[in-house]
From TrEMBL:
Pfam families, sorted: CPL, PUF
Residue span, PUM-HD domain: 1-316
An MF annotation (GO) of this entry: mRNA binding
TM annotation in the entry: none
Matching InterPro entries: ARM-like, ARM-type_fold, CPL_dom, PUM-HD, PUM3, Pumilio_RNA-bd_rpt
Record's GO cellular component terms: nucleolus
Name by which UniProt lists this protein: PUM-HD domain-containing protein
Amino acid sequence: MAHDTTRVLECLVQFGNEQQKQYIFEQIQKEIPTMSKSLYAHHVIIKFLTYGTDAQKDTIKKSLHGHVCKLARHSIGCRVLEYCYNDVCNSAERFQLVQEFYGREYAILKTTDVKNIEELLASKTATGQRANVLENMQENIMPCIQKDLLSTSIVHRVMHEYIRNANEKGREEMIDAVKEKLIKMIHSRDGARVAIHCLWYGTNKDRKLLIKSLKSFVIKIAKEEQGYPVLWTIFDVVDDTKLVSKVVLQELMSSFDEVINDAHGKKVLMYLIAPRNTKHLQYDLVQLMKTSDTLATSKKDADIRQHELFEFCKSYFLEYFTDNILSTLKDGFKGFMMTEMIERLSPDDKLTSFYTSLSSVLSTSSVEPQAETNLIENQIAHNVLRHLIIADGKRQKKHKQKTTLVSTLLSSISPDTLRTWILCNRGCFIFVMMLEHGQPDECKQIRSLLVPSAVETLKRQTFTGAKILVEKLLSSSS
């Protein structure tokens, strides 16, 4: 079919009346599988899948039965198959298309007794039946890999089903074939899961080639909803942290602002600071990551691996939080990332600039209840500051640092400004946290600041924070 002809037909399908559409459909109905593989004619099929009636769409779906594997490994046909699978079919219809990868019998007789590959394999009780299904899957997938036709969701699904059910030999063959081509698949959920399995079960050489294939695409992967867990897996299982730092972390750190301000990218950075922390990271994905703990494919201790990665990137985190302290205080996720970072820093890490920056912002914060600059009474900023004081207290107990957050706040912010904090509930709680987690000399300084001058003011307040602070001050001074 010529290019001009298909353009005319596309316009008629999109803008024509029902009679015109039906007439065209009746003329092409028997040629749907052939047209689906035509450079120009396949656009007409896609138009019918988009603008056709439900009956016409159902006819096209049924016409593809028996041709799914051929279309999947055809550079044009895979486009029609992908559109039909992703945008037109429901869950049951998708499984009917997927079944054709399991063997010829499923291209003719679709099974409705099972809903997924695991149920189907479990039903294959006779000797060799399970192996036959997996062999058929491999035979139908390999041509797609060899032809680099790896952008379709249906192929990703079949590959994911295969790699999680195949024996060791079959899995190794799959990893060897696809390890340098995974960048074309990571945008989909199943494609990303294939990449994760390749990292879990691949050799060190496989992992090295896989990571190198991601070069210049790391930011894109970090910002993709399905892609960022692949980076988590790299952090979890790859022993060569120098390679990971050079290829993955260096690219992430060079675009730090872009990554940390992205909904998915910030989760990659959080994983570097607090891996597998379900307080801040999606529970089911963290559980998925734990699968690698049972595999004997990584030799380096997990704590050592995490430490080496954190050491590479900690200066970038500290610099960002120091320069962007105000916006970080107002962002719950970034704020807790900052507190987790503080707790992990070593005694050699200098925090003076960071503490000074934080004190500077707080010293100019208004305590007027409705003021936009009221960080002390701002719920997010208050929680972040509270956790920072706790994290710094833990760090102080561990490393015995001379410079602490509490000491910097007390020395950098004027006494008059500090006393205004007792005029709001959360400001009182900040003092309570400093008394609970500060050093003895710092607590003494706080009492000197507030007792007795501010006690009467606190007693006149009706909010809870004031009452608790008075109790702390009086019990400490007695």
